[in-house]
Protein backbone atom coordinates (compact mmCIF):
# COMPACT_ATOMS: atom_id res chain seq x y z
CA UNK A 1 0.00 0.00 0.00
CA UNK A 2 1.22 3.50 -0.81
CA UNK A 3 1.45 5.22 2.56
CA UNK A 4 2.85 8.58 1.50
CA UNK A 5 0.88 11.75 0.93
CA UNK A 6 1.30 12.99 -2.63
CA UNK A 7 1.48 16.48 -1.11
CA UNK A 8 2.10 17.84 2.40
CA UNK A 9 -0.28 16.69 5.11
CA UNK A 10 -3.53 18.66 5.37
CA UNK A 11 -2.97 22.08 6.93
CA UNK A 12 -5.75 21.36 9.44
CA UNK A 13 -3.62 18.59 11.00
CA UNK A 14 -2.19 19.07 14.47
CA UNK A 15 1.52 18.80 13.72
CA UNK A 16 4.14 16.93 15.67
CA UNK A 17 5.83 20.27 16.39
CA UNK A 18 2.63 21.66 17.94
CA UNK A 19 2.16 18.49 19.94
CA UNK A 20 5.75 18.43 21.22
CA UNK A 21 5.37 21.94 22.64
CA UNK A 22 2.93 20.53 25.20
CA UNK A 23 5.82 18.82 27.01
CA UNK A 24 8.71 20.57 28.78
CA UNK A 25 12.27 19.33 29.29
CA UNK A 26 11.17 17.49 32.44
CA UNK A 27 8.41 15.58 30.61
CA UNK A 28 5.67 17.67 32.23
CA UNK A 29 2.55 19.04 30.56
CA UNK A 30 2.73 22.69 29.51
CA UNK A 31 -0.38 24.57 28.45
CA UNK A 32 0.65 25.52 24.94
CA UNK A 33 -2.78 24.49 23.64
CA UNK A 34 -3.38 27.76 21.76
CA UNK A 35 -2.48 26.63 18.19
CA UNK A 36 -4.16 23.26 18.75
CA UNK A 37 -7.28 24.87 20.19
CA UNK A 38 -7.49 27.16 17.16
CA UNK A 39 -7.48 24.17 14.78
CA UNK A 40 -10.05 22.29 16.84
CA UNK A 41 -12.34 25.33 16.95
CA UNK A 42 -12.00 25.94 13.20
CA UNK A 43 -12.96 22.34 12.50
CA UNK A 44 -15.84 22.39 14.99
CA UNK A 45 -17.33 25.42 13.24
CA UNK A 46 -17.68 23.33 10.07
CA UNK A 47 -19.50 20.46 11.78
CA UNK A 48 -23.05 19.76 12.92
CA UNK A 49 -23.30 18.07 16.30
CA UNK A 50 -25.92 15.34 16.02
CA UNK A 51 -25.90 11.96 17.74
CA UNK A 52 -28.25 10.45 15.14
CA UNK A 53 -26.11 9.04 12.33
CA UNK A 54 -27.43 8.22 8.86
CA UNK A 55 -25.92 4.79 8.17
CA UNK A 56 -26.67 5.13 4.46
CA UNK A 57 -23.84 7.67 4.17
CA UNK A 58 -21.35 4.87 4.82
CA UNK A 59 -20.52 1.59 3.15
CA UNK A 60 -19.26 0.17 6.43
CA UNK A 61 -19.11 1.07 10.11
CA UNK A 62 -16.45 -0.21 12.52
CA UNK A 63 -17.13 -0.22 16.26
CA UNK A 64 -14.71 -0.77 19.14
CA UNK A 65 -14.12 0.63 22.63
CA UNK A 66 -11.87 0.82 25.68
CA UNK A 67 -8.50 1.73 24.20
CA UNK A 68 -7.31 2.72 27.68
CA UNK A 69 -4.34 4.70 26.33
CA UNK A 70 -2.74 1.77 24.49
CA UNK A 71 -1.79 3.83 21.46
CA UNK A 72 0.52 1.14 20.11
CA UNK A 73 -2.11 -1.60 20.01
CA UNK A 74 -4.79 0.69 18.63
CA UNK A 75 -2.54 1.88 15.79
CA UNK A 76 -1.43 -1.67 15.03
CA UNK A 77 -5.05 -2.83 14.64
CA UNK A 78 -6.01 0.13 12.45
CA UNK A 79 -3.02 -0.46 10.17
CA UNK A 80 -3.62 -4.21 10.02
CA UNK A 81 -7.26 -3.65 9.05
CA UNK A 82 -6.11 -1.04 6.48
CA UNK A 83 -8.28 1.66 8.00
CA UNK A 84 -5.24 3.95 8.16
CA UNK A 85 -1.75 4.06 6.72
CA UNK A 86 1.31 5.79 8.13
CA UNK A 87 4.43 6.75 6.22
CA UNK A 88 7.95 5.31 6.47
CA UNK A 89 7.06 1.69 7.24
CA UNK A 90 5.85 2.79 10.64
CA UNK A 91 5.88 0.20 13.43
CA UNK A 92 3.97 1.27 16.59
CA UNK A 93 5.94 -1.24 18.62
CA UNK A 94 9.29 0.44 18.01
CA UNK A 95 10.99 1.09 21.34
CA UNK A 96 10.52 4.85 20.94
CA UNK A 97 7.16 5.63 19.42
CA UNK A 98 8.03 9.26 18.72
CA UNK A 99 5.54 11.78 17.36
CA UNK A 100 6.59 12.47 13.75
CA UNK A 101 4.15 9.84 12.52
CA UNK A 102 1.13 12.02 13.35
CA UNK A 103 2.05 14.22 10.38
CA UNK A 104 1.62 11.30 7.97
CA UNK A 105 -1.53 9.52 9.19
CA UNK A 106 -3.90 8.83 6.34
CA UNK A 107 -7.42 7.43 6.59
CA UNK A 108 -7.67 5.13 3.58
CA UNK A 109 -11.11 3.48 3.64
CA UNK A 110 -13.76 5.44 1.71
CA UNK A 111 -17.27 5.89 3.08
CA UNK A 112 -16.28 4.35 6.41
CA UNK A 113 -17.27 5.38 9.93
CA UNK A 114 -15.09 4.41 12.90
CA UNK A 115 -16.79 4.59 16.32
CA UNK A 116 -15.06 4.22 19.70
CA UNK A 117 -17.50 3.68 22.57
CA UNK A 118 -15.58 5.37 25.37
CA UNK A 119 -12.72 4.85 27.79
CA UNK A 120 -9.94 6.30 25.68
CA UNK A 121 -7.91 7.22 28.77
CA UNK A 122 -6.43 5.60 31.91
CA UNK A 123 -3.74 3.11 30.96
CA UNK A 124 -3.14 1.54 34.36
CA UNK A 125 -4.54 -1.69 35.77
CA UNK A 126 -2.38 -4.61 36.86
CA UNK A 127 0.15 -3.18 34.41
CA UNK A 128 0.66 0.19 32.73
CA UNK A 129 0.94 1.09 29.07
CA UNK A 130 4.47 1.62 27.79
CA UNK A 131 4.33 5.41 27.89
CA UNK A 132 7.66 6.76 29.10
CA UNK A 133 6.65 10.44 28.89
CA UNK A 134 3.06 9.99 30.05
CA UNK A 135 1.45 11.85 27.15
CA UNK A 136 -0.25 8.94 25.33
CA UNK A 137 -3.73 10.12 26.31
CA UNK A 138 -3.43 13.46 24.56
CA UNK A 139 -1.43 11.82 21.76
CA UNK A 140 -4.35 9.44 21.17
CA UNK A 141 -6.79 12.34 20.86
CA UNK A 142 -4.47 14.12 18.43
CA UNK A 143 -4.25 10.92 16.37
CA UNK A 144 -8.04 10.66 16.25
CA UNK A 145 -8.37 14.31 15.22
CA UNK A 146 -5.86 13.95 12.38
CA UNK A 147 -7.56 10.72 11.32
CA UNK A 148 -10.86 12.57 11.22
CA UNK A 149 -9.46 15.39 9.08
CA UNK A 150 -8.08 12.82 6.65
CA UNK A 151 -11.28 10.74 6.76
CA UNK A 152 -13.42 13.66 5.64
CA UNK A 153 -11.64 13.68 2.29
CA UNK A 154 -12.76 10.04 1.85
CA UNK A 155 -16.39 10.76 2.85
CA UNK A 156 -15.55 8.92 6.06
CA UNK A 157 -15.55 9.96 9.72
CA UNK A 158 -14.28 9.14 13.21
CA UNK A 159 -16.46 9.58 16.32
CA UNK A 160 -16.09 8.64 19.97
CA UNK A 161 -18.33 8.71 23.03
CA UNK A 162 -17.60 9.30 26.69
CA UNK A 163 -16.80 6.31 28.86
CA UNK A 164 -16.93 6.24 32.64
CA UNK A 165 -13.17 6.91 32.89
CA UNK A 166 -13.33 9.84 30.47
CA UNK A 167 -16.33 11.24 32.33
CA UNK A 168 -14.91 10.90 35.84
CA UNK A 169 -11.33 12.01 35.20
CA UNK A 170 -11.82 14.65 32.50
CA UNK A 171 -15.18 16.09 33.56
CA UNK A 172 -15.50 15.03 37.17
CA UNK A 173 -13.40 15.17 40.33
CA UNK A 174 -10.76 12.76 39.00
CA UNK A 175 -12.04 10.09 41.39
CA UNK A 176 -10.46 7.34 39.27
CA UNK A 177 -7.03 8.99 39.11
CA UNK A 178 -5.20 7.06 41.83
CA UNK A 179 -6.17 3.58 40.71
CA UNK A 180 -6.23 3.95 36.93
CA UNK A 181 -4.38 7.04 35.65
CA UNK A 182 -0.92 6.20 34.32
CA UNK A 183 -0.22 9.83 33.39
CA UNK A 184 0.06 11.43 36.85
CA UNK A 185 3.76 12.22 36.40
CA UNK A 186 2.92 14.07 33.18
CA UNK A 187 -0.19 15.99 34.24
CA UNK A 188 0.80 16.44 37.89
CA UNK A 189 -0.51 15.58 41.34
CA UNK A 190 -4.23 15.64 42.16
CA UNK A 191 -4.97 19.36 41.83
CA UNK A 192 -2.74 19.81 38.78
CA UNK A 193 -3.89 16.55 37.20
CA UNK A 194 -7.53 17.55 37.40
CA UNK A 195 -6.81 20.97 35.92
CA UNK A 196 -4.35 19.89 33.22
CA UNK A 197 -6.19 16.87 31.88
CA UNK A 198 -9.28 19.05 31.46
CA UNK A 199 -7.25 21.72 29.61
CA UNK A 200 -5.62 19.12 27.37
CA UNK A 201 -8.56 16.84 26.51
CA UNK A 202 -11.89 18.66 26.87
CA UNK A 203 -11.39 20.58 23.60
CA UNK A 204 -11.33 17.26 21.72
CA UNK A 205 -14.65 16.19 23.26
CA UNK A 206 -16.23 19.43 22.08
CA UNK A 207 -15.89 17.90 18.60
CA UNK A 208 -17.44 14.57 19.62
CA UNK A 209 -19.61 15.45 22.66
CA UNK A 210 -21.53 12.23 22.82
CA UNK A 211 -22.75 10.00 25.62
CA UNK A 212 -24.56 7.89 23.02
CA UNK A 213 -24.99 7.50 19.27
CA UNK A 214 -28.05 6.38 17.32
CA UNK A 215 -27.26 4.63 14.04
CA UNK A 216 -30.25 4.97 11.76
CA UNK A 217 -31.56 3.55 8.50
CA UNK A 218 -34.32 5.58 6.85
CA UNK A 219 -34.75 7.57 10.07
CA UNK A 220 -35.27 4.42 12.14
CA UNK A 221 -32.74 3.66 14.87
CA UNK A 222 -31.15 0.24 14.29
CA UNK A 223 -28.20 0.50 16.70
CA UNK A 224 -27.62 2.40 19.93
CA UNK A 225 -23.97 2.89 20.81
CA UNK A 226 -23.16 3.74 24.43
CA UNK A 227 -20.28 2.91 26.73
CA UNK A 228 -22.11 0.67 29.21
CA UNK A 229 -25.82 0.34 28.49
CA UNK A 230 -29.31 1.78 28.56
CA UNK A 231 -30.61 -0.49 31.35
CA UNK A 232 -29.98 0.02 35.07
CA UNK A 233 -28.09 -3.06 36.26
CA UNK A 234 -29.89 -3.07 39.62
CA UNK A 235 -33.48 -3.32 38.37
CA UNK A 236 -33.34 -3.35 34.53
CA UNK A 237 -34.99 0.08 34.30
CA UNK A 238 -34.84 1.42 30.75
CA UNK A 239 -32.84 4.67 30.99
CA UNK A 240 -33.09 5.50 27.28
CA UNK A 241 -35.62 8.36 27.60
CA UNK A 242 -33.37 10.26 30.04
CA UNK A 243 -30.20 9.45 28.09
CA UNK A 244 -31.81 10.59 24.84
CA UNK A 245 -33.05 13.85 26.37
CA UNK A 246 -29.64 14.54 27.91
CA UNK A 247 -27.84 13.93 24.62
CA UNK A 248 -30.22 16.19 22.71
CA UNK A 249 -29.46 19.00 25.17
CA UNK A 250 -25.72 18.34 24.92
CA UNK A 251 -25.98 18.62 21.13
CA UNK A 252 -26.96 22.27 21.50
CA UNK A 253 -25.34 23.25 24.82
CA UNK A 254 -22.15 21.16 24.87
CA UNK A 255 -20.75 19.01 27.66
CA UNK A 256 -19.50 21.94 29.75
CA UNK A 257 -19.06 20.82 33.37
CA UNK A 258 -21.48 17.97 32.88
CA UNK A 259 -20.58 16.00 36.01
CA UNK A 260 -19.78 18.61 38.62
CA UNK A 261 -23.07 20.52 38.32
CA UNK A 262 -21.49 23.95 38.37
CA UNK A 263 -23.41 27.07 37.46
CA UNK A 264 -22.69 26.80 33.74
CA UNK A 265 -24.16 23.29 33.53
CA UNK A 266 -27.81 23.76 32.65
CA UNK A 267 -28.91 20.27 31.57
CA UNK A 268 -32.36 19.30 32.79
CA UNK A 269 -31.23 15.70 33.44
CA UNK A 270 -28.79 15.12 36.30
CA UNK A 271 -25.68 13.48 34.88
CA UNK A 272 -24.50 11.90 38.12
CA UNK A 273 -27.76 10.02 38.59
CA UNK A 274 -28.19 9.09 34.93
CA UNK A 275 -24.67 8.33 33.72
CA UNK A 276 -23.17 7.02 36.97
CA UNK A 277 -25.85 6.10 39.53
CA UNK A 278 -23.27 5.30 42.22
CA UNK A 279 -23.85 1.95 43.93
CA UNK A 280 -20.74 1.48 46.07
CA UNK A 281 -19.03 -0.62 43.42
CA UNK A 282 -19.00 1.75 40.45
CA UNK A 283 -22.50 2.49 39.27
CA UNK A 284 -25.68 1.36 37.55
CA UNK A 285 -25.97 4.28 35.10
CA UNK A 286 -25.50 4.54 31.35
CA UNK A 287 -21.70 4.77 31.50
CA UNK A 288 -21.26 2.31 34.38
CA UNK A 289 -23.85 -0.50 34.24
CA UNK A 290 -22.59 -4.06 33.80
CA UNK A 291 -26.05 -5.58 33.63
CA UNK A 292 -25.76 -7.18 30.20
CA UNK A 293 -22.38 -8.82 30.82
CA UNK A 294 -23.12 -9.96 34.36
CA UNK A 295 -26.63 -11.15 33.50
CA UNK A 296 -28.53 -9.00 36.00
CA UNK A 297 -30.35 -7.54 32.99
CA UNK A 298 -31.79 -10.67 31.39
CA UNK A 299 -32.50 -10.91 27.68
CA UNK A 300 -36.28 -10.94 28.10
CA UNK A 301 -36.12 -7.56 29.85
CA UNK A 302 -34.38 -5.88 26.89
CA UNK A 303 -37.47 -4.74 25.02
CA UNK A 304 -36.41 -2.57 22.09
CA UNK A 305 -37.74 -4.02 18.85
CA UNK A 306 -35.33 -4.49 15.95
CA UNK A 307 -32.49 -2.58 17.65
CA UNK A 308 -29.06 -3.78 18.73
CA UNK A 309 -27.33 -2.08 21.68
CA UNK A 310 -23.56 -1.77 21.18
CA UNK A 311 -21.59 -1.40 24.42
CA UNK A 312 -18.03 -1.45 25.75
CA UNK A 313 -16.98 -1.26 29.42
CA UNK A 314 -17.06 -5.00 30.17
CA UNK A 315 -14.08 -6.99 28.81
CA UNK A 316 -15.62 -9.89 26.94
CA UNK A 317 -13.02 -12.41 28.09
CA UNK A 318 -14.14 -11.92 31.68
CA UNK A 319 -17.79 -12.56 30.93
CA UNK A 320 -17.74 -15.06 28.05
CA UNK A 321 -18.53 -18.01 30.35
CA UNK A 322 -21.67 -16.21 31.54
CA UNK A 323 -23.12 -16.49 28.03
CA UNK A 324 -21.66 -19.59 26.36
CA UNK A 325 -24.29 -22.31 25.86
CA UNK A 326 -26.89 -19.84 27.03
CA UNK A 327 -27.48 -16.70 24.97
CA UNK A 328 -24.24 -16.14 22.99
CA UNK A 329 -24.70 -15.82 19.24
CA UNK A 330 -21.91 -17.55 17.28
CA UNK A 331 -18.80 -19.59 17.93
CA UNK A 332 -16.14 -18.38 20.38
CA UNK A 333 -13.70 -21.31 20.43
CA UNK A 334 -10.71 -19.16 19.45
CA UNK A 335 -11.49 -16.30 21.83
CA UNK A 336 -9.85 -15.24 25.06
CA UNK A 337 -11.70 -16.67 28.02
CA UNK A 338 -10.45 -15.69 31.48
CA UNK A 339 -6.76 -16.41 30.78
CA UNK A 340 -4.49 -14.57 28.26
CA UNK A 341 -3.66 -17.71 26.28
CA UNK A 342 -1.27 -17.45 23.34
CA UNK A 343 -3.03 -17.64 19.99
CA UNK A 344 -6.38 -16.55 21.39
CA UNK A 345 -7.88 -13.27 20.20
CA UNK A 346 -9.97 -10.63 21.89
CA UNK A 347 -13.50 -11.13 20.60
CA UNK A 348 -16.63 -9.06 20.41
CA UNK A 349 -19.53 -10.91 22.04
CA UNK A 350 -23.07 -10.95 20.59
CA UNK A 351 -25.79 -12.01 23.04
CA UNK A 352 -29.55 -12.19 23.49
CA UNK A 353 -30.85 -13.29 20.05
CA UNK A 354 -34.27 -11.80 19.32
CA UNK A 355 -36.60 -14.50 17.99
CA UNK A 356 -38.86 -11.83 16.48
CA UNK A 357 -35.97 -10.48 14.34
CA UNK A 358 -34.44 -13.67 12.90
CA UNK A 359 -32.10 -14.00 15.87
CA UNK A 360 -30.74 -10.45 15.74
CA UNK A 361 -28.60 -9.94 18.86
CA UNK A 362 -30.12 -7.44 21.23
CA UNK A 363 -26.70 -6.60 22.68
CA UNK A 364 -23.11 -6.75 21.41
CA UNK A 365 -20.20 -6.26 23.80
CA UNK A 366 -17.23 -4.71 21.97
CA UNK A 367 -14.63 -4.29 24.75
CA UNK A 368 -12.06 -6.90 23.68
CA UNK A 369 -9.58 -5.91 26.42
CA UNK A 370 -7.32 -4.23 23.89
CA UNK A 371 -4.98 -2.46 26.30
CA UNK A 372 -1.81 -4.11 27.58
CA UNK A 373 -2.63 -2.55 30.96
CA UNK A 374 -4.83 -5.58 31.66
CA UNK A 375 -2.03 -8.12 31.31
CA UNK A 376 0.71 -8.83 33.80
CA UNK A 377 4.15 -10.38 33.38
CA UNK A 378 5.72 -10.78 29.96
CA UNK A 379 2.53 -11.59 28.05
CA UNK A 380 3.09 -10.35 24.52
CA UNK A 381 0.10 -8.19 23.64
CA UNK A 382 1.79 -7.26 20.37
CA UNK A 383 1.00 -10.62 18.79
CA UNK A 384 -2.61 -10.89 19.89
CA UNK A 385 -5.38 -9.95 17.48
CA UNK A 386 -8.66 -8.23 18.34
CA UNK A 387 -12.04 -7.97 16.69
CA UNK A 388 -14.03 -4.96 15.62
CA UNK A 389 -17.76 -5.11 15.08
CA UNK A 390 -18.39 -4.38 11.42
CA UNK A 391 -21.77 -3.20 10.15
CA UNK A 392 -22.37 -3.30 6.40
CA UNK A 393 -25.09 -4.24 3.93
CA UNK A 394 -27.55 -4.50 6.83
CA UNK A 395 -25.45 -7.35 8.22
CA UNK A 396 -23.44 -7.62 11.43
CA UNK A 397 -19.95 -9.15 11.43
CA UNK A 398 -17.19 -9.78 13.93
CA UNK A 399 -14.06 -8.58 12.14
CA UNK A 400 -10.65 -9.64 13.42
CA UNK A 401 -8.14 -7.03 12.20
CA UNK A 402 -6.71 -8.16 8.85
CA UNK A 403 -8.65 -11.44 8.86
CA UNK A 404 -11.87 -12.74 7.32
CA UNK A 405 -15.25 -11.51 8.52
CA UNK A 406 -17.35 -13.70 10.83
CA UNK A 407 -21.08 -13.32 10.19
CA UNK A 408 -23.10 -12.57 13.31
CA UNK A 409 -26.49 -11.69 11.84
CA UNK A 410 -28.14 -11.41 8.43
CA UNK A 411 -31.73 -10.10 8.27
CA UNK A 412 -32.50 -12.63 5.51
CA UNK A 413 -31.21 -15.63 7.46
CA UNK A 414 -32.69 -17.12 10.60
CA UNK A 415 -29.92 -17.49 13.18
CA UNK A 416 -30.52 -20.51 15.45
CA UNK A 417 -31.28 -19.44 19.00
CA UNK A 418 -28.93 -21.18 21.46
CA UNK A 419 -30.50 -23.83 23.66
CA UNK A 420 -29.45 -23.13 27.25
CA UNK A 421 -27.60 -25.95 28.96
CA UNK A 422 -29.54 -26.81 32.16
CA UNK A 423 -27.87 -26.62 35.54
CA UNK A 424 -27.33 -29.99 37.31
CA UNK A 425 -30.41 -29.39 39.49
CA UNK A 426 -32.55 -28.46 36.46
CA UNK A 427 -31.36 -31.60 34.66
CA UNK A 428 -32.29 -33.85 37.60
CA UNK A 429 -35.75 -32.32 37.92
CA UNK A 430 -36.39 -32.47 34.16
CA UNK A 431 -35.39 -36.12 33.93
CA UNK A 432 -37.22 -37.08 37.17
CA UNK A 433 -40.57 -35.29 36.95
CA UNK A 434 -41.87 -37.11 40.00
CA UNK A 435 -39.54 -34.92 42.09
CA UNK A 436 -41.21 -31.69 40.97
CA UNK A 437 -43.82 -31.96 43.73
CA UNK A 438 -41.03 -32.41 46.25
CA UNK A 439 -38.79 -29.63 44.98
CA UNK A 440 -38.45 -27.84 48.29
CA UNK A 441 -37.60 -31.01 50.17
CA UNK A 442 -35.17 -32.07 47.45
CA UNK A 443 -33.25 -28.81 47.53
CA UNK A 444 -32.97 -28.83 51.30
CA UNK A 445 -31.93 -32.48 51.44
CA UNK A 446 -29.03 -32.00 49.05
CA UNK A 447 -27.26 -29.30 51.07
CA UNK A 448 -23.93 -30.14 52.58
CA UNK A 449 -24.21 -31.05 56.26
When the domains are counted, the total is: 2
- The overall pLDDT, averaged over residues, is 89
Low-confidence stretches: 436-449
Q: Beta-strand percentage?
A: 5-15%
| Major beta sheet summary | 6 strands, mixed
| Rounded radius of gyration (Å) | 23 Å
Question: Terminal Cα separation, in Å?
Answer: 69 Å
Order of adjacent strands in the largest pleated sheet: 1-7-8-9-11-10
- Assign an overall shape: globular
Keywords:
Purple Acid Phosphatase, chain A, domain 2; 6-stranded mixed beta sheet; 27% helix; globular
What topology emerges from the helices and strands here?
Blueprint: H1 16-20, H2 34-44, E1 52-54, E2 60-64, H3 71-80, E3 84-85, E4 106-107, E5 112-116, H4 136-152, E6 157-160, H5 164-171, H6 177-180, H7 184-187, H8 190-205, E7 212-217, E8 220-226, H9 240-253, H10 271-276, H11 291-294, E9 308-311, H12 316-323, E10 349-354, E11 360-365, E12 387-392, E13 395-400, E14 406-409, H13 424-431, H14 439-445
Parallel strand pairs: 1-7, 2-5, 5-6, 8-9, 9-11
Antiparallel strand pairs: 2-12, 3-4, 7-8, 10-11, 12-13, 13-14
Amino acid sequence: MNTAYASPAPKQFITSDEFNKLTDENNKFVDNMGPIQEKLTTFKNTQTINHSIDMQKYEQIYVTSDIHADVRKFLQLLIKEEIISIDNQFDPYNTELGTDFIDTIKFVKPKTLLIILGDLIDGKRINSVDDKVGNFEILLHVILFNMRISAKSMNSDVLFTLGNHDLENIYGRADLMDDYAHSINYFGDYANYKKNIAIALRPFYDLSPYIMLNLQQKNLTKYIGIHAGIHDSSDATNMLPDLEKMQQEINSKGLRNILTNQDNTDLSIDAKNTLVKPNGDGGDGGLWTRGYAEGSVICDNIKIDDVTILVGHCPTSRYLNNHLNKDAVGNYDNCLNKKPEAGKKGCALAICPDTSSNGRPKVILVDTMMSCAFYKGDYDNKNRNHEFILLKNEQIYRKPAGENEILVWDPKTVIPVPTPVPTPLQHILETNPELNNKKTYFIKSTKNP
